[in-house]
Specification:
single chain, alpha+beta, Helix Hairpins, Chaperone, DNAj Protein, Chain A, HSP40/DNAj peptide-binding domain, 10 helices, 26% helix, elongated
């Protein structure tokens, strides 16, 4: 039997432009696509023919060869899917060309119902999130916490099958086990989740009364969670299998615990380092000495050299936070602020005045370095 003319198959003239060829093929593809004509062999055969015609005519070199020699030019062996008279054209190609981009296959699937269906009954449960607040000390030393949360758990009555004991799951008659059904929108057919089985592809003959056939029920759950040393706000801990139970026997999701470390009344955290400010008396700053300062591990002695200025920062190595991914610890940084007395009795004032005279501060109360700068400024 002689093969039909490619131009006639697409309903175009021999002087049609490349854009005309695309439009014609798109129109014919919509009309004869197998998903719109399930069980109709004639439509499927026609779809193959127009795909073959488009594969030749869309390529300028192949089209020129066809115009000159006709079908005979392509009779020696098919060129397969990559461009041949004997092959079957990838139906996604036209929509990738017309709509552009590698992701255009999704448009094709939306129009014609392509892609995978969610058949098979069971489905993995969703992951859950739990926000846990802990203290800075718990973050530094690690802790074990028991948390309570509500989740969808496997129904004990039907053991997750969704069916009353003795009953069973059968193929959904609405979608034939595909989990999706076709609906008509204008001249397009769109595949949608089956409303009867909610996309599972199966339904139970006698649903479990405890879970209404879902295979799971909502209940309170408790787990013990180990908090590792060094966690910080935003750290996530994964508890495998403690998310929501799967549907109809599917695997459970995971529980993700997001850590939030409370603000501390003394310390600020900067990565693995801790920072704090400590007020000291001006006499200590002048004379020098040692003080006990707080750390997460207890009191630590800190030496204050004589002549310490306000704002000086000292470092206690290894007294910071443990590193979450290593054995080392950060440091503790201590900035001192010198307190100036606001009230003096007569005896204290007299002694300070004597001290000022002895130091020469009575005549020159401004620091020498600043005095020299000011003097140059006014000169």
């Amino acid at each position: 039997m002689a093969k039909e003319d490619y131009y006639d198959l697409l309903g175009i003239s021999k002087d049609a432009s490349a854009e005309d060829i695309k439009k014609a093929y798109r129109k014919k593809a919509v009309q004869y696509h197998p998903d719109k004509n399930q069980g109709k062999k004639d439509a499927e055969e026609m779809f193959k023919k127009i795909s073959e015609a488009y594969e030749i005519l869309k390529d300028s070199d192949k089209r020129a060869t066809y115009d000159r020699y006709g079908h005979a030019a392509f009779q020696r062996g098919g060129m397969g899917r990559q461009g041949g008279a004997g092959g079957f054209h990838d139906p996604f190609d036209i929509f990738r060309e017309v709509f552009g981009g590698a992701g255009s296959g999704n448009i094709f699937e939306e129009f014609f119902g392509g892609g995978e269906s969610s058949r098979g009954g069971s489905r993995r449960g969703s992951d859950l999130r739990y926000d846990l607040e802990i203290t800075l000390g718990e973050a530094a030393n690690g802790a074990e916490k028991q948390i309570s949360f509500r989740r969808a758990a496997t129904c004990e009555n039907c053991r997750g099958s969704g069916a009353t004991p003795g009953s069973k799951a059968v193929t959904c008659t609405s979608c034939g086990g595909h989990g999706q059904v076709m609906s008509q929108r204008g001249f397009f057919s769109v595949r949608q989740t089956c409303p009867t089985c909610s996309g599972q592809g199966v339904r139970v003959e006698n649903p479990c009364k405890h879970c209404s056939g879902e295979g799971r029920i909502s209940k309170n759950s408790q787990i013990k969670l180990r908090i590792p040393k060094g966690v910080d706000t935003g750290s996530k801990l994964r508890s495998a299998g403690n998310g929501e139970a799967g549907i109809m026997g599917g695997t459970s999701g995971d529980l993700y615990v997001v850590i939030h470390v409370k603000e501390h009344e003394i310390f600020e955290r900067h990565g693995d380092d801790l920072f704090c400010e400590i007020p000291i008396k001006f006499t200590l700053a002048a004379i020098g000495g040692a003080i006990d300062v707080p750390s997460l591990g207890g009191k630590v002695s800190l030496k204050i050299p004589s002549g310490t200025q306000s704002g000086t920062t000292f470092r206690l190595r290894g007294h910071g936070m443990p590193n979450l991914r290593g054995n080392r610890k950060g440091d503790q940084l201590i900035r001192v602020q010198i307190e100036v007395p606001t009230k003096l009795n007569s005896d204290q004032r007299a002694k300070l005045e004597e001290f000022a005279i002895a130091c020469g501060d009575a005549d020159n109360p401004v620091g020498a370095s600043f005095f020299e700068k000011a003097k140059r400024f006014f000169d």
